Amino acid sequence: MMRIPRWVWSPLVLLPLGLLWGVLIVLAVTETMAWQLIVIGSLGGIFALMFVALFWYRRERNAYRERYLLEQKMQQERAEMVARLQEKNEELETLLYAATHDLRVPLVTIQGFTERSRKAVAELQRIVTLPYRAEELCRLARPLIEEELPRNFARIASSSERMDVLVKALLRIARLDRSAPRGERLAMNALMKRVCDGLAFHLQEADAEVQIGDLPDCWGDPGEIEQLFTNLVDNAVKYRDPVRKLVIRITGSTLKERAIYAVSDTGIGIKKEHQGQIWLLFSRLNPRGPTVGDGIGLALVQRIAKRHGGAVWLTSEPGQGSTFSVALPTRPRDATARTSLFSEGETP
Asked: H or E segment at 161?
């Protein structure tokens, strides 16, 4: 709450009151007309002084209020800037880790099998120079030509493809923050229909049933929000339970200025201790499992939600399925500030 400093209002109150009190005393003890006129004139001067003092006080009060509001706005902008810088630093650390660790793994694989191939070629060159009959040379060279070199080249090609996937994923992450999201009112039932139409083949292959409730509208970038829910539905298809029928339920509700959507599935579920890892870039709970992916789907979901001032969180039980909840704004928000929909101390 804004308070006017005492040094601003104290002189304006005490000085005129003191002068008025003195004039009234003089007027009471004076009997001559001349002195009474002088006192009355002084009284008028005091009232004029009080009027000027009141005008000055109001001007100083308004100026102080403007300075106070400006200072509060600057503090808020400074706090938002610090928060954005911290978020950017965390993103840069994640990208740096990906560049130094995740990209290094396939690179080391390529280097290792390239060195093995070089040694295999050197061995072939040595075999060719041996003074043996052609049949004996073929017998010695056949394991290298038919087994060693093809196996090495297959590993090199696989690691190269993995590197290509990682580089493209990094580019997708980098492009996401180049500009503020383009905001407009989104009819979510129509958007969710486009999402399911785009994944129709995968849904049919998985024999999945999709149930879409009456969804409230939200405010956001249509391309990014569609990408967000495409990743969530595709994630439900990828991690479905091989025994139970896959049922995906998409529901929505409103709370204050938020539209909250829930994407629930009957998939394999995620253990409590692993739920924090799923949001990390290139993180996969079972990298050697049958599920194909680049490990950035949920990382993109979280970044898109944050870019819109929203949030995403997970509730899951192994063997029961998972529910991804997404909170998005229902009205336009300042795209440069990207303030969160959740108040301080309030958790999704």
From this structure: helix 149-176
Mean pLDDT in residue range 103-113: 83
Contacts of 276 (CB under 8 A, 6+ apart): none
Q: Which residues contact 225 (CB under 8 A, 6 or more apart)?
A: 186, 191, 218, 304, 308, 328
Instruction: Give this prediction's pTM.
Output: 0.62
Q: Give residue 18's pLDDT.
A: 60
For residue 1, the model assigns a pLDDT of 46
Query: Are 259 and 188 spatial neighbours (Cβ–Cβ below 8 Å)?
Result: yes
pLDDT of residue 313: 93
Identify which of 276, 274, 206, 292 has the alpha carbon closest to the alpha carbon of residue 241.
Answer: 206
Q: Which residues share a beta bridge with 218?
A: 186
pLDDT value of position 294: 60
Round the average pLDDT of the chain to a whole number and report it.
78
Q: Pick the closest to residue 249 from 200, 214, 216, 206 (CA basis).
A: 214
- 8 A C-beta contact, residue 338 and residue 268: no
**What are the backbone dihedrals phi and psi of residue 263, each rounded to the nearest 5 degrees, phi first?**
-110, 105
H or E, element range at 311: strand 311-317
Q: Enter the tokens of residue 209.
A: 């049933």
Q: What is the pLDDT of residue 328?
A: 94
CB 215 within 8 A of CB 194: no
Beta partners for residue 105, in sequence order: none
What is the mean pLDDT of the segment spanning 274-294? 66
- Beta strands per DSSP E along 97-203: 184-186
Residue 344 pLDDT: 45
Chain-centroid distance, C-alpha 268: 27
Task: Find out whether 45 and 16 touch, Cβ atoms under 8 Å.
Answer: no
Q: How many CA atoms lie within 13 A of 201 on its CB side?
A: 1
Find, among 155, 130, 154, the residue nearest to 141 by Cα: 130
Closest to 262 (Cα-Cα) out of 197, 192, 327, 186: 327
Spatial distance between the Cα atoms of 58 and 282, rounded to a whole number of angstroms: 61
